[in-house]
Design a protein that fits this description.
The protein has 418 residues and is an alpha/beta fold. 50% of the residues lie in helices and 7% in strands. It has a five-stranded parallel β-sheet with strand order 2-3-4-1-5, with helices on both faces. A two-stranded parallel sheet has the order 6-7.
């Protein structure tokens, strides 16, 4: 029976698992928990192909428990109940460890049904998910489990696994593998060890005695998977978050990097939308023309299409990353909205109300309004906010050159006329 290479070389000890040293190393928290023998209910969170299932298998083996592997995409609570019926029999003498893959596919009722089984200790649950558990797993389950985050494995660690995989896959053959081929697989799998193993298996299967497996051959069989991106998942929001924070932090190189990731994933729309937000949220009044320039670049990108679209988008990213920054406009509108929600909108002062219709003057609308252009410097002191908000200040001038110039101007004008 055919057994994939990834299964054939699956580690049997924590020490052999590739990556996750912060969890699995000698002083790692999971290593210490396993040594204690007291295994809590756990949630393994992280991308696919990085060892979550392998670690669950090792835990079951070391604690002498039978491992029941279920996938939430097709499992049901009746499957869990069936497992509990085996506990205490020769099938599960030392208790059961249930590994529930992709728990986010269980609905609320199904997830809550797990509680009776994990609270009375009949089973130990290890659930895994590629989605953020704090978004997809209900609090009742979360509160009874410990969350461990697994990370994509770094290329240097994957290289060691790739070398070992080639040794096993090519056993009995006189085939040479170039260092460049090993590196290409390690860097091309996006931190997914399983994908790396699949690439090794494909490259090895067709290799004949006396041949050399080269970087070019590996690139032909390896998947184009050197980054993780799911337009509807956590990685989508993580990339967009990093994109905006890099531009806000005035790092053009990082901004361009995350733009490239979005474009390589085919998500120009999300990149463009976020750039339009950044232009006003983070650059704002420090460089007001930036919003118009970014809009022009975005429009050009959509008219051009890829690959040419990358150029105006890159121009806009570099402009924003190197521009002076101000979030004063965003802070002002957020403060005003918060005030309205807390204190109500209030009545508009009569002087400001519309008086361009019959009967308006009888109601006092427009009475006492001072036309600003009739006064020196086009300004005169009067109250514009509703009475209960009369002393509020929402806009605070930013510390950039442009806003400070405006601040100085109005301090001078308003000081003269006070």
């Amino acid at each position: 029976m055919y057994q994939p290479l990834a299964d054939r070389i699956r580690p049997q000890k924590l020490e052999d698992v590739v990556g996750q040293r912060d969890l699995l190393g000698e002083n790692g928290v999971l290593h210490r928990i396993l040594d204690s023998g007291n295994i809590p209910n756990m949630i393994f969170y992280g991308p696919s192909g990085i060892g979550k299932t392998t670690v669950a298998s090792i835990i079951a083996r070391k604690t002498n428990r039978k491992l029941y592997h279920l996938n939430a995409t097709n499992a049901s609570i009746s499957d869990i109940k069936g497992i509990t019926e085996e506990i205490g029999t020769f099938l599960a003498q030392d208790g059961a460890l249930v590994y529930l893959d992709e728990i986010q596919y269980f609905n609320k009722k199904q997830q809550q049904s797990l509680l009776e089984f994990i609270e009375d200790g009949r089973i130990t649950l290890i659930a895994s998910t590629t989605e953020n558990p704090y978004f997809y797993i209900y609090n009742a389950v979360l509160s009874r489990c410990t969350v461990f985050e697994f990370h994509a494995v770094q290329p240097p660690e994957i290289e060691r696994a790739v070398k070992r995989a080639f040794d096993i896959a090519l056993e009995g053959k006189t085939v040479t593998v170039t260092p460049e081929a090993i590196t290409a697989i390690a860097f091309g799998c996006g931190g997914d060890v399983r994908k790396a193993m699949n690439a090794v298996e494909l490259a090895s299967t067709g290799a004949l005695d006396g041949e050399t497996i080269t970087e070019e051959q590996v690139k032909q069989v390896a998947q184009r998977s050197n980054m993780r991106y799911d337009r509807d998942g956590d990685s989508h929001y993580d990339v967009l978050s990093a994109f905006q924070k890099s531009i806000r932090g005035s790092d053009p190189d990082a901004g361009i990097h995350y733009l490239a990731r979005l474009l390589e994933a085919g998500d120009m729309i999300s990149a463009a939308r976020r750039m339009l937000v950044i232009a006003s949220e983070d650059i704002g009044l420090a460089h007001p023309q930036c919003a118009a320039i970014v809009k022009a670049c975005v429009d050009s990108a959509f008219q051009l299409g890829m690959p040419e679209a990358r150029i105006p988008l890159a121009q806009a990213v570099i402009l924003m990353a190197t521009a002076p920054k101000s979030n004063s406009a965003m802070c002002a509108i957020d403060a005003a909205i918060a005030d309205i929600r807390q204190h109500g909108a209030g009545n508009i002062p009569d002087a400001l109300r519309d008086c361009h219709y019959g009967g308006a003057q009888k109601m006092g609308h427009g009475k006492g309004y001072l036309y600003s252009h009739d006064y020196p410097n086009h300004w005169v002191a009067q109250q514009f906010l509703p009475e209960h908000l009369a002393d509020r200040q929402y806009y605070v001038y930013g510390d950039n050159k442009l806003e400070q110039t405006a601040s100085s101007y109005w301090e001078k004008i308003k000081g003269i006329q006070k």
